[in-house]
Amino acid sequence: MRKLTKKSKVIAVAASVALVAVGGGTAYAYWTTTGAGTGTAANSTGGGTVTLHASFAAGLAPGNSVPVTYTADNSTNTGTVVGALTAKVTTSVDTCLPAWFAVSADTSNSPVAANSTGTQVGTGTLEFLNSAANQDACKSAIVTVTVSSV
Fold first, then answer.
1. Where in the sequence is the signal peptide annotated (predicted)?
2. Which residue among 11, 33, 134, 150 is buried most deeply as judged by most CB within 10 Å?
3. Average pLDDT over residues 5-17
């Protein structure tokens, strides 16, 4: 057998170090397993409350009607749906009878996005009914349509 020279010994040691550094001496260990689990959290208590508005043209006279637009403002962080609308008329003069008016509110489960304003949720008609009684009390009276949703 041949004797290793000093130079050969240095080369052999360097080659061994290089093999270990490259990964020849690296060992990995791990466990394998399976698992399952669940998580729970309570949902929100609801979509919040929207503010409903009714808008229509001024200048209504006996026997005439005007279209009404119903809109909603939603200041919550959750979208919601406005269901059936109901509307009623009040006036600023006691002798201008709400019974002299008819108002409708047509809607179809309108979605209202979170943090939105002026979303149309329905339409209708406001009619000033023609009566045999003197309706002069309604001249310049303020007519208000109050709308709500169920």
1. 1-29
2. 11
3. 63
